[in-house]
Write a structure and sequence with these properties.
about 190 residues; mainly alpha; Phasin
Length: about 190
């Protein structure tokens, strides 16, 4: 029971880690898109500058300088905006990863506490059963006690498994929440 639950928890943790990794990769892709947008804006500004310079060949040089300065300023503003978006996305990805790791740690502690509580309960029941067996007057009474004990252990194991499964699902949901939120925010930002 404990190995199966631990295996399920490990599988769930692996799946959650994969989802967090996917969300981080998506955020990095959004950052790369922002960087590409910066490059495209810089190329466009350069092209606009070249076109303006070519059209001004017969014009006053002070106007060419003024146009060049305006284009450079616009390019710098666009670059700053793109950098700001990329930095914000990276900061959000970092916060989401930190939050995911914190949730994973807390979930692991909760699962460990629940497993220790189940083991302690099982051990107490076993010792209590042994004490009762020592006081048995006949073999028939021993068989009756043993049958009742085994039935109770099966019920207890079933209940403990259900509790561990529910806790594992809760931990998995809590662990995935920051990654899901960060991914949604990045997807929304990429649309705009």
């Amino acid at each position: 029971m404990s190995n199966t639950t631990s295996s399920k928890a490990a599988e769930s943790a692996k799946a959650n880690a994969a989802e967090a990794k996917g969300a981080t990769e998506d955020m990095m892709a959004a950052g790369q898109k922002t960087a590409q947008d910066m490059m495209n804006n810089a190329q466009k500004a350069t092209q606009d500058m070249m076109n303006s310079a070519q059209s001004m060949m017969g014009m006053d040089p002070s106007k060419a300088t003024e146009t060049f300065r305006a284009l450079t300023q616009k390019s710098m503003e666009q670059s700053k905006e793109a950098y700001s978006r990329m930095k914000t996305a990276a900061d959000e990805a970092t916060r989401a990863l930190e939050s995911t790791m914190e949730h994973a740690h807390q979930g692991s502690l909760s699962l460990s506490k629940k497993a220790i509580e189940a083991m302690r309960s099982n051990a107490e029941q076993a010792f209590s059963h042994l004490e009762k067996l020592m006081g048995a007057k006949s073999f028939a009474e021993v068989i009756e006690m043993q049958t009742g004990y085994v039935r109770k252990q099966i019920e207890t194991a079933t209940d403990q498994s259900k509790d561990m499964q529910a806790l594992s699902q809760q931990v998995a949901q809590e662990m995935m929440k920051p990654g899901r939120e960060a991914f949604q925010k990045a997807a929304d930002a990429a649309k705009h």
